[in-house]
Amino acid sequence: MASITRALKPCYRKAAAFSDTSLFQSIRQYQMLGQAWGVENPFFKIQESRSKRSVTIDGRQLINFGWCDYLGLSDHPKVLAAAKSAIDEFGSCISASRMVSGDLQMHRQLETELAEFFGFENALVFVSGRAASVSTIGTLLSKGDLVVHDELVHNSAIVGARLSGAEMKPFKHNNLESLIRVLLESRERFKNVLIVVEGLYSTEGDCVNLSRLVQIKQEFGCWLMVDDAHGVGVLGESGRGLAEYAAVDPRKIDIYMGTLSKALASCGGFIAGNAELNEILKYSAPAFVYSVGLPPAVTAAALASLRILRSEPERVHRLHDNCKLFFGECRARGFDTGTSIGLGMIPIMVGSVKKTGRWMELMIKRGFNPSPIIYPGVRINSSRLRFFISSEHSVYELQSCAEALSGSESVR
Ligand SMILES: Cc1ncc(COP(=O)(O)O)c(C=O)c1O
Question: What tens digit of pLDDT does each residue of 65-110 get?
C-alpha cells in the first residue's frame, strides 16, 4: 500500500520563496530607486511624541501635516480621560464578538449618538473603517448584482465588491455623465446595483455632486453608499459630512460609512443607515459577527470626541478657516492643488516619485511633516505631497509651511 501511494504521488511545484514574489521585488525596486536618487525612505518613520499638531521624528520636532487629526481631539483632555476611565471600569479589551459576548452600554450609546448626529436611523461600529466597508459590501451584494464605483474610490470598496462576487464597473472620477453611461448600458441586466463614492476623496480632496447623484440613483433604482471617512467632522458647517455640505437629506444615502480614526480621534469605523440594514449587518457581516467588539478605551474616546464635535462646532469653523488660509497661500504661490475643494486635506501635485521623495525630504529638513503619496495610492506620475490640516494649526504654522513649500519647489 505504501509503495502504491508513493508511486501515485504527484510532483508538486514548490511555492515561491517570499523574496522571489513579484510583490517583494517591486518593494525592493522602489527602495533601490530611492537609494539611487539619494532619497531616504519616507515611510514608517518612528513618531516619538503624542499625536498632535507637532510631532517628533528622529529627535526633531516637526509641524505635523501627516495625520488626520482634523479637529485636534487626539490629545484633548476629555478624550484621554474618557479612554482611561473606560479601561479602569471595563478593562483593556472585549476579547470576543459582541454578538455572543454581549454589548457594553457604551457601544450602544456610541451607535445611538452616531446615528443621531449624522441623521440616520441606526449605526453599527466595526473595529476598522476598512473592515466596515469591505464586510458591508461583501455581505449585501452577490453574484448577479453590480457595483458601480468611482474609479478613485478607496481600496475597501474595491475589495468588498470583489469579495461579494458581484460584477464591477468603474465610472470616471466625479463624472456623473460617465456614471449614467455605465448605468444605461448595464442596469437592466442586474438585480441589486450599488453605487459607491467617497465623501471627501482622500487623495484628491474633492467631492461628488451629491444631490445629482441621489437623483441618478433613484432614477436607476440603485443603492448608494458614501464612504465619508474624511468627511466626518470636516464637511458641512457642523461637521456632519457630505450630506450637510451638499444640503441633502442624509437618509437619501442608503449606506453611510464613517471612520472613528480621523476627526473622531479613536479607531474603528461605522455603517449608518436604516434599521433593516443595521439588522442585516449585525447578524451577517463577517467583520462584525466573527470579529472582536471595539475595546472600551477606543469606544469611550470616540464617544467623547463625538460629543465634543457636537458641542463645539467652532472647532469645525476653525478647521475651515485654517484650510482656507493654507489653500489660499498655496494657490497664491501657483501650486497645483488639482481638483481639491480646499477642505480637510490639501494635495500639492508633484508628478514623479523622485521629485516627491526629494521634496518631502526638504520639507522635513525645514521642519514640516506632510505625507508623500505615490503609486499605487495614486496613478503613476501623479505623485503628490498631502497636507492634512487641523483646527489646531496656528496661522503662523500654516503660512510658514506654504513659504517652505515655495522655497523647495525647484527640487529635481
Ligand atoms: C477613504 C477612506 N475609506 C476608508 C478608510 C479606512 O478607514 P480605517 O482607517 O478606519 O480603517 C480610509 C483610511 O485611510 C480612507 O481614507
Answer: 998 999 999 999 999 999 999 999 999 999 899 998 889 999 999 9
**What SS3 state is found at 279?**
helix
For residue 260, give the ligand 1 atom closest to its CA. 10
Establish whether residue 198 lines the binding site of ligand 1, counting it when its CB lies within 6 angstroms of any ligand atom: yes
CB count in 10 Å sphere of residue 1: 5
* Residue given cell 537609494 in the structure block: 35
Q: How far is CA 187 from CA 167, 192, 223, in A?
A: 11, 9, 12
Task: Check pocket membership of 130 for ligand 1, CB cut-off 6 A.
Answer: yes
The per-residue pLDDT for range 284-297, each reduced to its tens digit, is 999 999 999 999 99
Nearest CA to ligand 1 atom 8: 129
Given a contact cutoff of 8 angstroms between Cβ atoms, the answer to whether 244 and 238 are in contact is yes
Burial of 247 (0-12, 13-18, 19+ CB in 10 A): exposed
Distance from residue 248's CA to the centre of ligand 1 (Å): 23
**Domains, the chain, with CATH or none:** 44-70+313-408 (3.90.1150.10), 77-311 (3.40.640.10)
